[in-house]
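For reproducibility, we list the full input for the MTE complex.
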Amino acid sequence: MRDDPRAPLLPTSPGFWRSPLRGPRFTAVLGLVLLVGVTVLFGTGLLSYAACNPGLSPVNDKTPDKGVLGFYLFAWPTDPHWLYRLTQGVHVTLGITLIPVLLAKLWSVVPRLFTLPPARSLAHALERLSLLLLVGGGLFQFVTGVLNVQLDYVFPGSFYPLHFYGAWVFFAAFVAHAALKTPTALRNLRRLREEPGDLVSPRPAEPTVSRRGALWFVGGASLLLFATTVGQSLGGALRRTALLAPHGGADPGSGPNGFQINKTATHAGIDRAETGADAWRLVVTGRTGTVRLSRAQLAGLPQYSAALPIACVEGWSTPDQWWRGVRLRDLAALVGHDDPPDLFVESLQRHGAFRKAALRANQVADPRSLLALYVNGEELSPDHGHPARIIVPAAPGVLNTKWVARLTFGDL
Ligand SMILES: Nc1nc2c(c(=O)[nH]1)N[C@H]1C(S)=C(S)[C@@H](COP(=O)(O)O)O[C@H]1N2
Ligand SMILES: [Mo]
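The corresponding predicted structure, in tokenized form, follows.
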């Protein structure tokens, strides 16, 4: 049968794969790009994890049974104030930009998926098992990441543990794979021409594009994704170039409150009757007891301003906005904490994710951390958190709770 050129070939036979593009050098180029890219993704991902104050479990981080994997390295700093804007912008933009490279890399090695016999030895079996974790884990991370960015938290509570555990599986397999293959990839790259090998088709079809052309195509696709994503992290007029970025449910409009809105007051189920001057009271609790403050009383306390961005875990961010309100550390002092402790924040919002957040003492102590009443010289709009919202330098947007109802100071 093998001798009959018209006989149908199975994917397990090398001759089934006919693209003349496949070869060790092509795979090596893509692999080395991913080596650098995925390492940066993992690093910025860990930083994003640290930035969510996972140590203040279980308020911010509800991941079950995380054990040693739930380590966090340090209290997330408040300087520079654009830190999370940068690290998370890189994480999301780079992740999206690498999609064509990942797909091309998988395509370039797909014949190996069908190699027979499935395992030649125990070592070979283990290697193939690690590839399953590598490919499965990689696809899982890219898919959950993109879904989270694009679809406004399809899995609100569960994205976090899914992406978290997926990251460790993917990265463990990635490290093993990189350790095994990087020397080969570098060697293949130093060769001037493709050598025969299991990736090179024994009966190549007529080329329709050169290898170099194919690499340009992959690079061009990445560049296109980059160009249509990066605007979401730049803001202003450039935001409109972010065709692929989520645009949220609401048009923020123009004027002082005219910047990206994550969730509108209506969407969050905020009842206007509860935010009015007569009804709303901020409840502040600490060592010396509880105080209730009306918005007029808050506005009568010393007011401070800070220019800070909103930087969402989804990757989008706003340029610095001028926030004005009461310092969190002044509110801590009001209830007996001259040395600011951690802070537990609760919103008026009754349902949905992100209505509670825990801030660490270093964040509370920063003089730029505010319970903001105003933005860019105007009252906060309902969608940006009227009557009052938290704003903390360098913190992920998810910690900047809107429609604040209650502040509880004390070590968490
Ligand atoms: N109560 C409450 N606060 C919240 C949220 C929320 O859903 N509910 N979303 C958070 C998230 S994820 C972000 S990115 C910021 C966005 O703030 P903005 O809508 O003013 O831009 O608000 C944060 N504060
Ligand atoms: Mo967010």
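The radius of gyration is 26 Å. The beta strands are 282-286, 289-293, 304-308, 321-327, 343-347, 356-359, 370-375, 378-379, 389-391, 404-409. Both points were considered when choosing residues for closer inspection.
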